[in-house]
Amino acid sequence: MAATRKPLIEAKPRRRKKHPPNMFAKNNIPSDQTVMSTAASFAASAMVIQTVARNLLPYELKAYIFNNISKFFKSFSFQTTLIIEEFDGLTRNQIYIAAEIYLGTKTCSSMKLCKVSMGEMETKIVVSMAKNQETVDVFDGVKFKWRQVTRQVESKNVVFQGQSSNVRSEKRSFELSFHKKHKEKVLDSYLPFVLKESKRLMEEKKTLKLHTLGNDHMRRYVGGAETWQPIKLDHPANFGTLAMNTELKATIMEDLERFVKRKDYYRRVGKAWKRGYLLYGPPGTGKS
């Protein structure tokens, strides 16, 4: 039998896979001089752009650009901020007042700077947030960031007794920031809690005060809450100094204490929470 020869197959060289250049290879690492030169060039370009934007662009265009840039970055944020202004039109915002009282109990324990004051004839020190300060409050395991914002506002030119002056006033507000998933908790639970707690604190330190307007110049040109000047009503007369039959005095005091405790009852039945006593007798017995 004749032997069959196998056909010869030409062997082809194997192709080597091309690997991408290694940016961390020793030869590809930029020198320190190159890095410093690039950073200096970038910083110089940024300063030129900032100078051009500050000096050449109109204020309206700059505000439009910056506002849109701010909105762009805020769109990626999970934070929500509520603004609580001191005045709602011509009346004071009750939420602002409540927040101011409530945060007074939290401020000095979590801040380096806070404000303390005590009015004339007062017996307790009042603590509140200083201007443009921040504090953090925790409610039901959630952190809430409070920031007090005070802006100076220049009012119109005032002429008084031949002298002209610009009266400056302030606009105050609170900014409450939190994760946006807690918005319902803030509106349904947290802010009602702040209102309730501030009311309790006010009842504890409540003092009877008389408020009077300042001088005619302040009433006419300045306006606002600053024109009202409070003074504590500290009258020396009390039930102890009242010259009255002992049993009758005890009856009036018991009736008054019962009336004070039934405030909610008067609200439920729709009656005004008022009580009056007519005292009569000779002068000098302490009726007034």
Automatic annotation (TrEMBL):
Keywords attached to this entry: ATP-binding, Hydrolase, Nucleotide-binding
Chain spans, region Disordered: 1-27
Gene3D superfamilies: P-loop containing nucleotide triphosphate hydrolases (3.40.50.300)
Family matches, as PANTHER family: BCS1 AAA-TYPE ATPASE (PTHR23070)
Domain AAA-type ATPase N-terminal: 57-149
Presence of the UniProt keyword Hydrolase in the record: yes
Keyword ATP-binding in record: yes
Identification of the protein by name: AAA-type ATPase N-terminal domain-containing protein
SUPFAM superfamilies: P-loop containing nucleoside triphosphate hydrolases (SSF52540)
GO molecular function, one term: hydrolase activity
A Pfam cross-reference name: AAA_assoc
